[in-house]
């Protein structure tokens, strides 16, 4: 009976070890994890020593190495905006999608609403203005906090 229990325990341990992956972040940090899934720009995983599910932004991760097959999968490319003209490279995230990214400050701006301009057109212009300001400072991610005409505000994130 003990032998059967031991064999069963070892087989479960081997299957857990087979799921071990290594995550390489854009900032150079590496983590040994058990990969679960990628969903809504988040990578879900558990640490090797615990079963607590954790998540990190997909944009913070460069590669996912599957140790059992010796394969590497690119999760995201590193984004480096080089000036205001690169504002299309800046990605607007939700606050929940910033796990693993580093907050770098807040940007504010002013954008006047013209007579007859639709609300959606104004919001698009506000997002573009905030993305231009972030790109000018070299930050690839923002979370928009406010799109009021006198108070455009966003938080900038980097690797």
Descriptive account of the structure:
The strands form two sheets. A six-stranded antiparallel beta sheet has the order 4-3-2-1-5-6. The protein has a four-stranded mixed beta sheet with strand order 7-9-10-8, with helices on one face. It has 159 residues and is α+β, with helices and mostly antiparallel strands. The protein is 23% helix and 40% strand. It has two domains: 73 residues, SH3 type barrels, CATH 2.30.30; 75 residues, Dodecin subunit-like. A hairpin with a 5-residue loop joins strand 3 and strand 4. The chain contains two helices and ten strands, in the order αββββββββαββ. Keywords: Signal.
What is the fold's blueprint, element by element?
Layout: H1 2-18, E1 20-25, E2 30-39, E3 42-47, E4 53-57, E5 61-66, E6 71-74, E7 91-92, E8 102-109, H2 119-137, E9 141-148, E10 151-158
Parallel strand pairs: 7-9
Antiparallel strand pairs: 1-2, 1-5, 2-3, 3-4, 5-6, 8-10, 9-10
CATH secondary-structure class of the largest domain: Alpha Beta
Total count of helical runs of at least 4 residues: 2
Shape: elongated
Helix amount? 10-25%
Strands across the major sheet, in which order? 4-3-2-1-5-6
Structural class: alpha+beta
First and last CA, distance: 52 Å
Mean pLDDT: 87
Low-confidence stretches: 14-18
CATH topology of the largest domain: Dodecin subunit-like
Total beta strands: 10
Backbone CA Rg: 21 Å
- The string of secondary-structure elements, in order, is HEEEEEEEEHEE
For the record, the CATH architecture of the largest domain stands as 2-Layer Sandwich
Number of individual domains: 2
Largest sheet: 6 strands, antiparallel
Q: β content, as a range? A: 35-45%
Q: Can you say what the CATH homologous superfamily of the largest domain is? A: Flavin-binding protein dodecin
Signal peptide: 1-18
Keywords: Signal
């Amino acid at each position: 009976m003990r032998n059967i229990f031991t064999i069963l325990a070892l087989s479960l341990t081997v299957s857990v070890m087979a799921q071990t992956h290594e995550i390489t972040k854009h900032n150079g940090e590496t983590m040994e994890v058990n990969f679960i899934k990628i969903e809504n720009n988040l990578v879900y995983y558990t640490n090797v020593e615990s079963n607590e599910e954790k998540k990190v932004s997909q944009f913070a991760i460069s590669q996912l190495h599957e140790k059992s097959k010796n394969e590497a999968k690119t999760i995201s490319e590193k984004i480096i905006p080089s000036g205001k003209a690169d504002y299309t490279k800046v990605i607007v995230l939700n606050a929940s999608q910033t796990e693993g990214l580093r907050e770098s400050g807040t940007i504010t701006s002013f954008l006047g609403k013209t007579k007859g301009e639709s609300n959606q057109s104004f919001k698009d212009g506000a997002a573009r203005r905030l993305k231009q300001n972030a790109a000018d400072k070299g930050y690839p991610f923002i979370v928009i906090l406010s799109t009021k005409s006198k108070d455009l505000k966003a938080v900038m994130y980097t690797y």
